[in-house]
Specification:
alpha+beta; three-stranded antiparallel sheet; 1 helix; 48% strand; elongated
Length: 71
């Protein structure tokens, strides 16, 4: 079965590297905890404020799981 999961994280000035590491850990923990058969895609998008400054990041992961009825 194909599934989609969305993750978000706020970005702070001069902390983007740490926040990206935290987001990577969050996604990896999620994937390890689920019965993921295959990751189909990973997509990142930056959210901005009204002045165009980056204020957050949205990561969307599309993946397949093992079909429990067929295993």
């Amino acid at each position: 079965m194909v599934k989609v999961k969305t993750f978000t994280i706020p970005l702070k000035v001069f902390h983007a590297h740490e926040e990206l590491d935290a987001l990577d850990s969050q996604v990896n923990d999620f994937l390890e905890g689920k019965e993921v058969k295959k990751v189909i895609s990973v997509s990142d998008a930056v959210t901005t404020d009204d002045k165009g400054a980056a204020i957050g990041l949205v990561r969307v992961v599309t993946y397949t799981t093992r079909d429990k009825e067929k295993d």
